[in-house]
Amino acid sequence: MIHRTYAAIRHAGAISPESPAGYRFRRLGDGVSIAFPPGAIFGEQWIEIGDHTLIGERVSISCGMVPDRDLGPDTILRIGASCSIGRGSHLVAHQSVEIGDDVFTGPYVYITDQNHVYDDPDIPIGRQWPRNSPVSIGSGSWLGTGAIILPGTTLGRHCVVAGGAVVRGEFPDHSVVAGVPARRVRGYTPELGWHAPITLDTFP
């Protein structure tokens, strides 16, 4: 009975296009489900989520630093269709975070377009104004458990990010990215299939 009751609570607490909480979003596509219990969610009017995307338990999805702040007329956080965001992940947008279609993440992934700066050595870092830089994650990509996507990152289509990687920079389609800081460890070409990146050191 306890299990049935908890299952009913989870079903009733999920956020969908038909639920009252769903109406706060700029767009929730058909079949979207944000699992109960959710993480911190605010800035919904700047968030779009595409059809049939599933968001796991305790996923935080936010735009801006605090609720009820006017962030302008444009969408700031866009998640594509048929995505799956793992439990405990955090999607934190201030300027622009774009996630393509069919993007899957493991649990506890962190994606943000804002970071603290340390330009002035005499001011505590937490009191210096942070800096924004857009993030784009290409369709068909996979982000492993605990991956961190930092401001200014562009991942192409069908990329793999290894678990625990700390990613910043631009990576082309069909990249395998791993490490701290992350680097491209494999790529794909029709001639060679999946292979280590080709550099000048490869040639005699």
TrEMBL record:
In which organism is this protein found? Nonomuraea rubra
Would you tell me the Gene Ontology cellular component terms?
Answer: cytosol
Q: What are the record keywords, sorted? A: Transferase
What family is this protein classified in? Belongs to the transferase hexapeptide repeat family.
Q: Which CDD domains match?
A: LbH_MAT_like (cd04647)
**Name this protein carries in UniProt:** Acetyltransferase-like isoleucine patch superfamily enzyme
Q: Which Pfam families match?
A: Hexapep
The molecular function terms of the Gene Ontology recorded here are: O-acyltransferase activity
Q: Gene3D superfamilies in the record, alphabetically?
A: Hexapeptide repeat proteins
PANTHER family, A to Z: ACETYLTRANSFERASE C18B11.09C-RELATED, SIALIC ACID SYNTHASE-RELATED
Q: Which InterPro entries match?
A: Hexapep (IPR001451), Hexapeptide_acetyltransf (IPR051159), Trimer_LpxA-like_sf (IPR011004)
Q: Which SUPFAM superfamilies match?
A: Trimeric LpxA-like enzymes (SSF51161)
Membrane-spanning parts: none
- Superkingdom, according to UniProt? Bacteria
